[in-house]
Amino acid sequence: MAALEIAAGQGDPKAQTELATRYENAEDVPRDREKARLLYCRAAKQGYAEAQFQLGWIYANGRGVAHDDGVAAALFGAAASQGHEYAAKLLRYVHPRPDTRLPACLTPDPPAVAKVVDAEAVVRGRADVEQLVHRLAPEYRIDPNLALALIAVESAFNDAAVSPKNAQGLMQLIPETAERFGVTRPLDAAENVKGGLAYLRWLLAYFRGDVRLVVAAYNAGEAAVEKHRGIPPYPETRTYVKKVTAIYKRAHLPFDPDVVGPSPMVRGTRASRP
Length: 274
Fold this sequence. Notes:
About 55% of the residues lie in helices and about 0% in strands. By secondary structure, the protein is mainly α. The chain has two domains: about 1-95, Serine Threonine Protein Phosphatase 5, Tetratricopeptide repeat; about 120-260, Lysozyme (Orthogonal Bundle).
C-alpha cells in the first residue's frame, strides 16, 4: 500500500487508478469517494483509459457527484478511442451534450512559460497559424489545407490547447506521437506543426494516400484502423472523420512511398510521389 501511495503521488496514472479503486470500494482503506474521484481525475487527465472509464462510470451513475451524462459520454468516448471495449459499449447508454463542461480537475493546466522563445512559434490567431502551416507544409510535401482542416477540428487554432488525454498544441499531439516524431516542446507552435506534418506524411505513405483512413488514424491510431479494416466504429473517430472531411474534400492524395511501406490492408495501391 505504501509503495502504491508513493507511485500515485509521483504521478503514475496506473497507480493512481488502482489506489482510487481501493478508496472507492473500501479495499484495505476507509471508503473515500471524493479521494477516489480526484485520483481517477488525475490519471484521466494524463490520458489513462481505465481511469477515464472509471470516472465516466462515476458521473453516469451519480456516485458521490451529480449525475451528468455529458461528462460520462466525454470520458467514455476518450477511453473508447483508445480501445477500451466496455467504455465503447456504454457509450450507447449516455447522451453527449455540446455544452458539457468537464470537471475542473480535467481542465488544462496553464502552459509553462518557455525559457527560450522561438520567434517562428509565436502565434496570435488563426491568420498566424495559417501562415505558419503554409510555410512548413511544403517541407513535408503535405497539402497545407489538409493540415489546417485537422487543426480546425483538433484545437480550433488554439496553440495552448491540452485535451483530457494530454494531447497538446495545434495538432493535438499525444506524448507518444510527439516522442515518435522528435517533438520535445509540443506547446511550441512551430515544433507542434512540424510533428503533426511528419505524422501526416507517414500516414499518407502507410495508407497510400487514402485521406479518410489517414484522418481516422490521426485520431484513433493506425493500429485501430488496421484492426477494423477501415474507419474504427468509435463514435468519436467517426464524428472526427466527418468533421475533417467536411472541410477538406479531397479523397486521395499523392504520397512518398520511400517514407514507409504500405499497410497490409492497402497493398497494391500504386505509389505516387507528391
